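retry 2 of 3: previous attempt timed out while embedding 2,6-diaminopimelic acid. Reduced batch size to 1 and resubmitted. Inputs unchanged:
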Amino acid sequence: MKFTKMHGAGNDYVYVNCFEESLPEDIASLAMAVSDRHKGIGSDGLILICPSEKADARMRMFNADGSESEMCGNGVRCVAKYVYDHGIAKQQTLKIETGAGVLHLDLELAGSRVSQVRVNMGHPILKSAEIPTQLPGDPPVDADLDLGDQSLKVTCVSMGNPHCITFVDELNDHWVHGIGPKVEVHPMFPNRVNAEFIEVVSPSELKMRVWERGSGETQACGTGACASAVAGVLTGRSERNVLIHLPGGDLRLEWAEAGEVYMTGPAVEVYEGVWTGPQ
Ligand SMILES: N[C@H](CCC[C@H](N)C(=O)O)C(=O)O
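retry 2 succeeded.
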């Protein structure tokens, strides 16, 4: 199986071109095997670039634990870069089908290849039943999340996939590795949840670290950055236009008055290879 290694702000996935490659039936096991950083290729998960009936391509995304997610913000930018650079479609505006619907992406070129992508990520989902979470509020804003020995104030937003945002005074490992895994599997989130921790630098600048559902800490999370930008506005902590600093790079976010979230960030291809390991 041929694959391409790509990342967006350090959030790295193994990409497979399913216009050409055929995959084993058990994609969950394949995702776990390729993602292993010691015994596999090493990645935050597996992303399939598939034919679509309503768009230029369809993205399917699997976490490192084999679970499938509806959406991946850094992934969809890389899918767009792959589709353009590898000649699957040659327009500078692409449509990619995802679990969050068909998204529109504007490509920025460096020479003949894509370097940056601006994505219309659509409207955030703010109804608790659709996020989904059992916390009160549509959406829950600074709601109490009881962890037993302590309680967090969390804001929940779905970008097609679920996010739980906690604003903190200082970002550190305690939040990401100590609290993140507890939030991920908290019973208030029936489908588990991605946990973002945000330090507000100024109303137009945030610092973020993430504990992702199914993959643990990653260097960036595009949908998490969108959800955090929305949470910043909902809680009055930040403006509609923000720059978010992540361990792997920066993302630019805008929650437009009309309701859509726009995300701009890099997409990088690193290498191509052939997977000969367990299927
Ligand atoms: N890193 C991805 C999100 C992966 C989300 C996944 N961990 C989930 O289960 O929803 C992003 O850039 O949006």
